[in-house]
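Action item from last meeting closed. Structure (433 res):
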């Protein structure tokens, strides 16, 4: 019912309106700083996965983003680098990117942010102090501490059912840290079908390279089994820049006949990460992937044909970002998320976040970390929060100038949508957190 005879707003009785720009900024920064995140795409693993759970200075320095950067500043054949031990590789990267050069790139600065967060020297000549620190931490406590420092309440892993090391953990019914959720990653099946066939066959699924009804049924059985085992929050695939939908390739048939029906039946969203060109420089191995501009129409068609399936979508190319926002305005089953990989740099996050706010309000997922090594949660979220806060301050200030002030509670609600609620509403997160 309308508030008869009065012009009272729906907010001012509850809380003061933030009409002062300095106060407004303070509240936005506080909300962005303090709001807990659900990190919807990482490559982290919980302690139960043993050696797959990466943490500490040697893993941090041998991150593939830094490996690629190192090769630009040192004369070294990739084959020689790959023959070195992890420790030697880390020493070389430290010397090259942090001692002989200033760590100005985003990935290099990230290491500085992490060292500083733990009170470690950021300009030491060697890694001795950092190694000593990480080696003496109680691992479980260290995991808790990092989650607290990053203000991350949950992360989603990237889980490949055809990875033997991982499968072993799932098949043994190991209880996994409740902060770590699964995502059923389908790259091998959808992007490398010929090599996936023998692997599926080994595991007892009667599939053939040529797709027929029996093979489709078996792929569905495989997906169902892994959904039961992992209880993933969504299924996911990374796709090349030349991904088209519809198309007359094997991937199209598998998507149409196995993956999309499974998504529908299980009520699981499908996450599409589009625009990666794998192995542009194969000698660099995991650091050798590139980017290409993709066709957003593929996503539009998929959303139009499957209104009952929800799609989380991110593109790797900066050039695709505006079209993705426009597509999301047309399809409410499309959720843009994150600033992926080569886009996760302050200047580009700033641009994309502003573009998304202007076209979509708060109906998108502002960021994911893509962290592979635990402590990266600290820098990736710290750096992103800084840039997202600025974009929000700008948007609220503009709104204020137009005649609408917001309250602290409204800001908190908006930030919660961007950092966790838009994701949470689309997935079935059980129990805490
Ligand atoms: O950002 C990365 O770490 C890439 O190597 C990829 O893993 C990418 O994020 C992906 O999920 O395919
Ligand atoms: Zn990733």
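Sequence:
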């Amino acid at each position: 019912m309308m508030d008869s005879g009065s012009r009272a707003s729906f907010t001012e009785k509850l809380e003061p309106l933030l009409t002062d720009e300095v106060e407004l900024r303070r509240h936005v920064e506080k909300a962005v700083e303090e709001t807990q995140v659900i990190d919807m795409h990482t490559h982290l693993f919980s302690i139960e996965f043993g050696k797959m759970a990466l943490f500490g200075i040697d893993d941090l320095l041998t991150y593939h983003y830094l490996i690629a950067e190192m090769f630009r500043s040192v004369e070294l054949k990739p084959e020689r680098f790959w023959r070195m031990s992890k420790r030697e590789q880390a020493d070389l990267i430290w010397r090259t990117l942090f001692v002989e050069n200033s760590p100005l790139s985003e990935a290099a600065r990230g290491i500085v942010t992490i060292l500083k967060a733990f009170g470690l020297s950021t300009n030491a000549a060697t890694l001795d102090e950092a190694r000593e620190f990480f080696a003496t931490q109680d691992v479980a406590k260290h995991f808790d501490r990092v989650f607290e420092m990053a203000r991350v309440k949950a992360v989603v892993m990237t889980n490949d059912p055809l990875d033997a090391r991982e499968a072993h953990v799932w098949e043994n019914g190991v209880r996994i840290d409740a902060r770590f959720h699964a995502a059923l990653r389908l790259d091998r099946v959808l992007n490398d079908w010929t090599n996936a066939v023998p692997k599926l066959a080994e595991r007892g699924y009667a599939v053939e390279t040529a797709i027929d009804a029996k093979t489709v049924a078996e792929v569905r059985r495989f997906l169902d089994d892994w959904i039961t085992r992992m209880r993933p929050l969504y299924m996911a695939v990374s796709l090349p820049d030349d991904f088209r939908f519809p198309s007359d390739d094997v991937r199209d048939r598998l998507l149409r006949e196995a993956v999309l029906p499974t998504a529908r039946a299980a009520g699981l969203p499908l996450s599409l990460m589009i625009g990666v060109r794998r192995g542009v420089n194969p000698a660099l191995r995991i650091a050798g992937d590139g980017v290409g501009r993709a066709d957003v129409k593929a996503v539009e068609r998929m959303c139009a044909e499957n209104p009952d399936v929800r799609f989380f979508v991110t593109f790797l190319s900066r050039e695709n970002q505006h079209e993705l926002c426009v597509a999301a305005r047309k399809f409410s089953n499309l959720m843009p998320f994150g600033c992926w990989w080569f886009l996760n740099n302050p200047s580009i996050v700033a641009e994309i976040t502003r573009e998304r706010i202007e076209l979509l309000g708060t109906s998108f997922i502002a960021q994911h970390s893509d962290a592979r090594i635990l402590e990266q949660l600290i820098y990736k979220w710290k750096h992103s929060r800084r840039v997202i806060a600025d974009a929000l301050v700008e948007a609220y200030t503009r709104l204020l100038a137009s005649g609408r002030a917001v309250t602290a509670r409204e800001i908190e609600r908006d930030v919660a949508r961007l950092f966790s609620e838009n994701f949470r509403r689309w997935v079935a997160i059980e129990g805490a957190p």
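Note appended to the action item: The first strand starts at residue 37 and ends at 39.
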